[in-house]
Design a protein that fits this description.
9-stranded mixed beta sheet; 4-stranded mixed beta sheet; 10 helices; 13 strands
Amino acid sequence: MIDVTAIGEILIDFTPAGVSQQGNPMFEQNPGGAPANVVACLSKLGCSAAIIGKVGRDQFGESLKNTLDRAGVLTEGLVMTERCGTTLAFVHLSETGDRSFSFYRDPGADLLLEPGDLKRDLIDKCRIFHFGSVSMTGEPSRSATLEAVNYAKEKGKIISYDPNLRLRLWSSPETAKTEIISAMHLADILKVSDEELFFLTDENDLDFGVRKLMNKYDLKLVLVTLGPRGACAFCGTHKACHPAYDVKTVDTTGAGDAFMAGFLYQLIRSGKKPGELSLEELTHFLSFGNAVGSLVTTRKGAIPAMPDIGEVEDCMAECGFAQS
């Protein structure tokens, strides 16, 4: 069995790395892409994980495959194409480490994933199937993603959905909202940031916005990340919140993906379904997820920054909580 199989974008993040002697910005090549970040982190924590996606048959694509192989992620579902290059994203960091992205993807290889590329046995063998909306921003990857998610749903898999809103990749905010919501009914677990929650619901009240989505789409578990303020989890009538850990943040790239991986790790270990978690379990899972997410921000890059289980346990035992 595979604990988690994910589908979606696998790309190169070029992360700021100081300036040259001539005073020009320098960038470091790092592996990235939200679904890849999640499965790489899960593998680092000790879970079995697989990825379905497409990269270019170029030095970037080869580098990504090698990175995921070294991380212990099953890559038999990773297709390489000569039709176009691997997608690139340049990360821009603010003084506080918050990031924004510039994408070079017109198209990128990740958008060329086709329904015929799907390795269905990776879905058959998994317990949780994870996806996002970036692979739904164009065809044929949109059709491939939805076909995979529907297939996983039919097979009784737990469906985990992180919209991971990147407005620059959509033709308009209206299209983004429509397409993201169109897949909501397939999910058992939804993870959103507070900004994404407002975008999707037009509700300023976090609790009201979450309950609105849960009731309309029969979601079993909703996770809301709050940046330096930590995260909240909603399951049935339960609501739990937990602060982030007090660490020295240098780059927030991949923090939400690491949090998601940490929470899924605990869910897998519990052996429970998403709608069965107690308030105590929600709180503990949030604490662990926040530790994973917080630690990732202390290093540059996403996949290279993922912590192991020992580092997470040390953080939970020794790090204080960030001030909200």
